[in-house]
Specification:
177 residues, mainly alpha
Length: 177
């Protein structure tokens, strides 16, 4: 029994397996109208203006509008804000002391605060004590996360509420000192 080669010839194979678009290129060229492209050179400042105009048309990120506020991200934002505020206060007072050491020494500060009304003193104590205690307790919470504790959702919320409670208690204790 002789084996015969059955198949398509090379010319037939090329036509059969060629893409449809390739077979109909001439027909497509006549059907699709040509469009002229105009190229214009722009200065580098114009490209930046075009980019800024496109950015203004983009929608803003919806993260604040579509997500419900949660204790974990609110406490994270508050921790960063209190850290920045306490740092700014420390650096501001330090620079003021370096510029005018006679004005910002302990005796002058105690004398100034002693002359203030009581409600101003207590308000000032609350304004200083609340961020300090929150940042302290929340920092301990972050250190406990670094050790692998309170990483579950329930644990994170439990630790968050503990931070808020400890902040309230220690703020009142510092204000009443």
């Amino acid at each position: 029994m002789m084996s015969a080669r059955v198949g398509l010839s090379s010319a037939t194979r090329r036509v059969a397996f060629a893409p449809i678009i390739g077979r109909n290129q001439i027909a497509l060229r006549t059907v699709i109208p040509k469009r002229g492209v105009q190229i214009q050179s722009l200065p580098s400042s114009a490209s930046e203006e075009i980019l800024n105009a496109q950015r203004l048309k983009r929608p803003s990120s919806p993260h604040f509008t579509i997500y419900q506020p949660q204790l974990t991200w609110l406490s994270s934002i508050a921790n960063r804000a209190t850290g920045g505020a306490l740092s700014a206060l420390l650096y501001g007072f330090s620079l003021a002391y370096l510029v005018a050491p006679g004005t910002f020494d302990s005796a002058h500060i105690v004398e100034f605060v002693a002359g203030l009304p009581d409600f101003v003193k207590y308000t000032g104590k609350i304004i200083l004590a609340a961020p300090f205690t929150f940042h302290f307790w929340n920092g301990l919470r972050h250190l406990s996360w670094d050790t692998g504790k309170f990483l579950s959702l329930k644990g994170a919320y439990r630790a968050g509420y503990a931070v808020l409670g400890a902040t309230a208690v220690s703020t009142v204790a510092l204000v009443l000192m």
